[in-house]
Amino acid sequence: MVRAKICGITRAEDALLAEQLGAWAVGFILAAGTKRYLEPQQVRPISTALGPFITRVGVFVNAPPEAVLETMQTAKLQVVQLHGNEPPQWAEEIRQHYPLIKVFTLDGPALPDWSDYPCDALMVDGTTPGSGRGYPSEWLTPLLKHPRLIVAGGLNPGNVEQVLALRPYAVDVSSGVEAAPRIKDPAQLAAFLQKVNRFECPAVPEPG
Which CATH class name applies to 3-198? Predict the structure, then answer.
């Protein structure tokens, strides 16, 4: 099973549609100055409109732990995603309160130094997150040993299947299912989630 997170949510109707179509998680950008930023007070009513079986993720960039924790409480979110150069000590402090996803960018086949970073899941993204620009899928191969690898960066309904074939823990999409920045396209969203939810991982051969 591969899970899907729909990121860059700014409208309740997009969040509810993602939930209806079978997304496992939705993400809210809480980094001021970015295209899809929402104030925590704007996120809260969207979060509370969702049902109990979809995860709400707050995305932060270089925000200190005390600011992250206060924002998470105000926005009523459940999982923290760190998308900057946060030191491990910050992650350790946040993880005392929330599960944590750490994002590393891929700008070549060299592996990011993730092995000692304290997190509950590892996400890899392109060098310009939210732009729709990806990277060669073969760069992911050495990272597949991670038990909770989330793949982001340039995904859309037309190319997600080649990443699904690698059997990551999850895939993450934002601009690849948008009609315009901040507005999801219902047809693209449905097509993306249909491909993820209908994907069948190949059976693992039994030993011997």
Answer: alpha beta
